[in-house]
Amino acid sequence: MENHLTVLICDDSLLIRKKLRETMEKLKFKEIYEAENGVAAIEQVKQHNPDIVFLDIVMPDKDGIEALKGIKEVNPDIKVIMVSSVGTSNKLKEALENGAHDFVQKPINFETITKIVENILKEG
């Protein structure tokens, strides 16, 4: 599936970023950017204005919730998908209240990511 979307992957784990990047490449994203923390994510959003952001909740410097708020200030239309590990369900509720589009649980699998991206493409 060819798509014209750009994506930002923000996670403090290099391994998770690598895995997500491979998934995004399979989904034929036009541009793929990476950030290792919330501060870098907001900078990348200002610089590249991606269509979709995959954002880890638990990170150093600025956590996912703070980064989400910052991203939404830059561009409220960006679809932010929160990435969470087990035990962050209270944070997920807060993320959704602050404008997160969706969330995905770690470990991340290709089918889940594909479904989320397909839904976003359908929404336009």
- Biggest sheet layout: 5 strands, parallel
Measured between the Cα atoms of the first and last residue, the distance is: 15 Å
Structural class computed from helices and strand pairing: alpha/beta
User: Would you tell me which CATH topology applies?
Assistant: Rossmann fold
Helix content: 40-55%
Q: Number of helical segments?
A: 5
- How many separate structural domains? 1
Give the CATH superfamily. Answer: Response regulator
In sequence order, what are the helices and strands, one letter per element? EHEHEHEHEH
Proportion in β-strands: 15-25%
Low-confidence stretches: none
CATH architecture: 3-Layer(aba) Sandwich
Can you walk me through this structure?
A 5-stranded parallel β-sheet has the order 2-1-3-4-5, with helices on both faces. The chain has 124 residues and is an alpha/beta fold. It has one domain (6-123): Rossmann fold, CATH 3.40.50. Helix 4 links the parallel strand 4 and strand 5 (102-105). It is 47% helix and 20% strand. The chain has helices at 14-26, 38-48, 64-74, 89-97, 110-123, and strands at 6-10, 31-35, 52-56, 79-84, 102-105. The longest helix is centred in the last third of the chain and has 14 residues, at 110-123.
Keywords:
124 residues, Rossmann fold, five-stranded parallel β-sheet, 5 strands, 47% helix, globular
